[in-house]
Amino acid sequence: MSTKSKGNITSPILIEACKDAFKKLNPKLMARNPVMFVVEIGFVMTLLLSIFPSLFGGESNRGYNLTVSFILVLTILFANFAEALAEGRGKAQADSLKKTKQDTKAKVIQKDGSIKVVDAADLRKGDIVLVEANDFIPSDGDIIEGVASVDESAITGESATVIKESGGDFSSVTGGTKVISDYIKVKVSSDPGESFLDRMISLVEGAKRQKTPNELALSTLLVGLTLIFLLVCTTLVPIASYINVNLPTATLVALLVCLIPTTIGGLLSAIGIAGMDRVTQFNVIAKSGKAVEAAGDINTIILDKTGTITLGNRMAFSLLPVKGVTQKELNTFAAYSSMHDETPEGRSVVEFVVKAGAVKEGLKKEGSEGVEFTAESRMSGTDLADGTKVRKGAVDAIKKYILQQGGKVPIDLENISDEVASLGGTPLAVAEGTRILGVIYLKDTVKPGMKERFNELRKMGIKTVMCTGDNPLTAATIAKEAGVDDYIAEAKPEDKIRVIKREQAEGKLVAMTGDGTNDAPALAQADVGLAMNTGTHAAKEAANMVDLDSDPTKIIEIVAIGKQLLMTRGALTTFSIANDVAKYFAIIPAMFMVAIPEMKALNIMDLDTPQSAILAALIFNAIIIPLLIPLAMKGVNYVPMNASKLLTKNLFIYGLGGVIVPFIGIKAIDLILVLMGIA
Amino acid sequence: MDFLQISVVLVLVLVLAIPMANYLTTVYSLETTKQDRIFGPIERIIYKLSGIQTSEMNWKKYAKALLFSNLIMFIISYLIIRFQGVLPGNPSNIANMDPILAFNTAASFLTNTNLQHYSGESGLSYLSQMTVIIFLMFTTPATGLALCIAFFRGVTGQKNIGNFYVDLVRSLTRVLLPLSILIGLILVSQGVPQTFSSTAAVTTVEGAAQNIARGPVAALESIKHLGTNGGGFFGVNSAHPFENPTGFTNILEILCMFLIPAALPLTFGRMAKNKKQGWILFCAMGSLFIVFLSVAYFSELNGNPALEKIGLSQENGSMEGKEVRFGIAQSALFTAVTTAVTTGTVNTMHDTLTPLGGLVPLAQMMLNCVFGGDGVGTVNILMYTIMAVFIAGLMVGRTPEFLGKKIEAREMKLIAIAILLHPLIILGPSAIALATEMGTSGISNSGFHGISQVVYEFTSSAANNGSGFEGLGDNTPFWNISTGLVMLFGRYFSMIAMIAVAGSLLTKKRVPETIGTLKTDNSTFLVILLATVLIIGALTFFPVLALGPVAEWLTIR
C-alpha cells in the first residue's frame, strides 16, 4: 500500500459521497452546522412558497420561488457533498487499515490455561491471547511471553518483517498485523473501539467528530455573523415597509443566504476532516484533531540525533596516518582490517579506500581470516594469509593491545584521536603487527537535506533542539553541521522532559518524537508527541500521534500539515467574508430598484434585471462551494516562509481575490442567465 | 482657507495627543510614579473617606464595582431630576421632570450619551444641571477610561487588571478635573457665562422684552467636551453663542473632545511596550476619520440640489441649519469630530445636513470605533483588531494570537456578542419604530429622510453619542423608554463583554513572538483591520443606509 494510492478519490467514494450528501439533509444532522441549517430553513420556506405562493401574505412569483429553493437545496447538497467526500476518503483509508482486523479470531488463554477461540471484537483490555505463526494479531497489545517475527506491512507498507519480543522496547504489537514465525502471548491493551485505528476513524467521521478548539472558535464567529445577517434581513422588512417597499420573502432569503458565510460554513467540516486525512496519508495516526491543530503552532521541535538528524551509521570520513606512516600504507591496512567486517562502519572503510584509489581486487582476501568484534577485546580485524594480524578498534583498546604485543604507541596518536573526537567523530585506531598506523575518522553523517529543512523551519519561526547522548564537543559539531538551533549533549531521558517544561514555561508549544518507554513522560508532556510504531506500548500510549513508518523526521511534515490546515481555514474564511462586498452590490440595488428607480446607480455591475441579479448572486454563492472543494481537500499551497510574506501572499489571493472574483462571477452568471432567457 | 483651518486643527490634535498619551500612561500605572507625590495625598483622603480598598481586582470584581457604582449614580440622579421642583437650587422655578423622561435623562447622562429629550434651559434646575448633569459628565468618562485601561491591562498582560475605584478616582483627580478647570477658565474669558443668577429679563435695543437663559455654563461646557459627553446647557447645544461664542472656542471645543480619544490608542501602544502598535490603531481610526470628514465637507460644500432647484443659491454650500459664523469648514469638522468621538455636541443641526453629509455622522456612530468616546472607542477598535487577528491570523498557519495571547473560542464568543449587539439595538428598535404608529408619529419628514431620522436616533443612543436628527419629535413614552434602554444596553453589555475578554486574556500564558507570528503593527495589518471594520462593521448597515441617506441622495441629485 503506497502512500499515494491512499490519497486518491475513487469513483465508489464519489458515488457514496453523492448519496451521503442527500442523507445529510436530515435536519437533525444539519443542525450541527448552524450556517447551513439557516440555508435549509430558507430552502423549506421558499419551497413552501412555490407550492403556496401567498403563504406569508401577499402574492409571489411561483417560478421564482421554485428557482430560489432549487438553488438553495443545491447549495446545501454541495456543502454536504464536500463533507461526505472528505469523510469518504478518510474512511476508505481507515477501512484499508481496518480490513485485516475484521473477522479475526483470537485465541484467548483462560485462567485455567485452556484456550478459547473468540471474535477479536469481543476482546477486553487485560485479556491474554496466544498468537501463533500465520495468525493475525487480534488487537493492540504488549507481548508478555515469546519472540516472533511480525509482518507489519498491513499498516506500515514496509515488507520486511520485524522482530518483536517481550520486555524492552520491541514488545508492543498492533492489531491487524501478522505473526510469521514462532508464537507470542499478547496482553490486550485496549477495549473494542479504543484502539488507535478506532480513534483515527472517529476523527474522520463528520457526525461523531469532535471539533478542534480553533474550529470551535471559528464556528462561534460564523454563528455570530449569521445572526447579524439574520437581523439585518429581518429588520429590513419593516424598515422598507415604511417607504412602501414590499420585499418578496424569496428575495430576502436569497439576500440572507448570500450574506451569511456559507462558503466557509459549508467547507469548514471538510477542511478539518481533510486535514486529518492528510495526516493519515503520511501513515501517521493522530489520536486527536487537537494535536494536528497544535502542530501548526509548534515553536520548538526536539529531535533525537541518531536516526533522526543523522543516518545513525558512522561512516569513514578520512584516514589519518601517524608520523612515519604513508597514507597509502594506512589505507591498505585499514581496508584489510575491515575486509571481513560486514557492519556499516566496516563496509564504509573499504568503500572509502576504494574511492581513494586503492583497487579492491588488490586486497588479497584468499586465505585470510576475519576476527569478530567482542565486547571484551573491543576490536575486530583480519588475520592475513601471511600471518600478519591487522586490527582496528577503539583507540585505548588498540593501545592496550599493542603494548601487550610489545609494540610502541606513536606519540602523535593521542593528538590525532583527540582532534577527531573534537570534530564530532569517532576515532578508530588501526594496527598492523606491533605497529599503530593511524586513525580512521568515523563520522556520523547528517541525513542529506536536513540542513535545508531546518532552514525552512527557522523561516517559519520554529526552533530545533537536538538531543544526543554524545559528549558536548561531538554534539556541538553535529549541531553546527545539521544547522539545528540548539542541542542537549549527554542527554538523559529526563533531560528531554526538562527542556519541554522549560520551553512550555515560556509559552511555547513543543513537539517531539520518541519510541522508548523512558520517552513516554516526555511524549505525554509535549504538545505534539509522535511515537514510532516500532516503539513500546507505553510510548505509543503517551504520544498523541503514532507514525506507522517509524520515521522520526516526519514530525516536520506534521507541523506543515498542521499549518496548512489552519491556513486553509483562514484563507477560505477570508474569501467567504470578502465575497459579501460584491453580493451586497448585486442584491441591494436589485431589491429596491423596482420601488426606487434611482437605486440603479448602485447597480455597478450593470446586472440585467433585479431577478437575474439576485439569482446570479445566489448561483455564484452555490457553485463556489464545489469549486473550492479541491482546495479544501488538498489544503492551500504551503511553502515555508515567514509570517509577513505568507500573510501578504494569502491576503492577496484570498482577500483581494475574494473581493474581485464574485464581481466577475456574478456578472458572468448574469450574462448567461440573460442568454438562456431564464431571467 | 478651509483646508488650512481643518489641517491646523488636526495637526494640533496630533501634537497634543502624544504628550497626553504619555501622561495617561503614567496616570494609570500600577507602579508608584512621580505623579503620586502630587495627587497621592488628595486621593488617599478620598479613599479613606469613601472606604475604598485599593487592592487589585479580578475582572468579575472590576465589572461588579463598575456596575454597582453606576447603578447608585443612576438612582441618585433619577431622584434629583424627578424632584428638582421641590429641591433647592432652582431659582428659575423649573418643574419636576416626569418619570419616563427622567428615566431617559438619567440613562442618557449615565451612559455618556447625553441624548436630550428635554430642553436644557427649561427642563432642568441649576441643582440638576450641577449635581446630575455635570456630576455624571465627570463620572461617566471616568468610568469609560477606567474600563478602557482595565481592558488595556488585560490585553497587554500587565500584572493585574487594576482596581476600578482607583482608576475612577485617578481619572477624576489627575485628568478630568484639572483639565476642565483650565478649559472652563479659558471659556469664561471668551464670554461663556458662569453664574448662579436666574434667567435674565432684558429689554432689547428694539425695546422688546426678552428672557435670556444663563447659568453655570462654563463648568458644564468644558467637561461636556473633555468627557465626550455632549449634552448642552441650552437646547441648541454648541450652536448657542453662550456655549460656543467664538471661532476660537469652536476649535478649543473640537480639541477638547478629540484629546483623550486620540491619545488612548497611543497609550495602548505604550502599555503594550510597542509604540508602533498604538500608531497602527491611531492610523486605522485616523484614515477612516479623514475619509468621513472629506465626504461631509464636500457634500456640504456642494450644497443641496433640492434647494438649488427652487432657486436658493448654494454657492457657499448648504448653509441650512448652520451657524454663519462657523461656515462650512468649521461645521463639517465639528460634525465629523463630534460623531467620531461620540460626543454628540453639535454646532450645526444634523437634521439639515445634505443626505451624504448626514450619512457621515450616522456611519461613524454605526462603526463606533472611529476614535470613539472616552475609553470605549479604543476598546471597540481593539475588539475589531482581535477579530481581524482571528481571521487573518489563521492565514499564517498558526492559531490566532494578539500580543502573544491566543484568541480562542471564549474570546470569540464574547466578541461575537459585542459585535452582534450593536446592530441589534440599532436595527431592532428602528424596525419597530418604523412599523408602528408610536414610532412613525414622531417623524417630521416622511420618506427616506424619515428612515434616517429614526435610525439616527437609535444609532446615536446605541453608540452613546447623544446627538440627534432633531426633526424627530422624541419626547414621547415610546422614544424615551426605547432609547433609554438602547443607551443602557449599548454601554454596559459591551463593557462587560470586553472586560471579560480582558480577564480571559490576562490569565493566558504569553506565546513568544517569532518570525512565524502574525505582525499586528505593520501596514499589512492596517489594511486587514480596515477591511474588517468596513466589511463586518459597515456592510451590516449598508441595506438600511441604502434606504435612508443613500436613497435620499439618489432621488434629489
UniProtKB/TrEMBL annotation, chain A:
The chain crosses the membrane at residues 35-56, 62-82, 216-240, 252-274, 613-632, 652-678. The keyword Magnesium applies. It catalyses: K(+)(out) + ATP + H2O = K(+)(in) + ADP + phosphate + H(+). Mg(2+) binds at D515, D519. GO terms for molecular function: ATP binding; ATP hydrolysis activity; magnesium ion binding; P-type potassium transmembrane transporter activity. The keyword Magnesium applies. Keywords: ATP-binding, Cell membrane, Ion transport, Magnesium, Membrane, Metal-binding, Nucleotide-binding, Phosphoprotein, Potassium, Potassium transport, Translocase, Transmembrane, Transmembrane helix, Transport. PROSITE patterns: ATPASE_E1_E2. Signal peptide: none annotated. It comes from the Bacteria. ATP binds at D341, E345, F373, T374, A375, E376, S377, R378, M379, S380, K392. GO terms for cellular component: plasma membrane. Residues 102-205 form the P-type ATPase A domain. Its EC number is 7.2.2.6. It is a multi-pass membrane protein. It is found in: Cell membrane; Membrane. The active site is at D304 (4-aspartylphosphate intermediate). Coiled coil: none annotated. PANTHER family: POTASSIUM-TRANSPORTING ATPASE ATP-BINDING SUBUNIT. The system is composed of three essential subunits: KdpA, KdpB and KdpC. Belongs to the cation transport ATPase (P-type) (TC 3.A.3) family. Type IA subfamily. Part of the high-affinity ATP-driven potassium transport (or Kdp) system, which catalyzes the hydrolysis of ATP coupled with the electrogenic transport of potassium into the cytoplasm. This subunit is responsible for energy coupling to the transport system and for the release of the potassium ions to the cytoplasm. This is Potassium-transporting ATPase ATP-binding subunit. It comes from Peribacillus psychrosaccharolyticus.
Automatic annotation (TrEMBL), chain B:
GO terms for molecular function: P-type potassium transmembrane transporter activity; potassium ion binding. The keyword Aminoacyl-tRNA synthetase does not apply. It comes from the Bacteria. Its main location: membrane. It holds the Pfam family KdpA. The system is composed of three essential subunits: KdpA, KdpB and KdpC. HAMAP family: KdpA. Part of the high-affinity ATP-driven potassium transport (or Kdp) system, which catalyzes the hydrolysis of ATP coupled with the electrogenic transport of potassium into the cytoplasm. This subunit binds the extracellular potassium ions and delivers the ions to the membrane domain of KdpB through an intramembrane tunnel. Belongs to the KdpA family. This is Potassium-transporting ATPase potassium-binding subunit. It comes from Peribacillus psychrosaccharolyticus. The gene is kdpA.
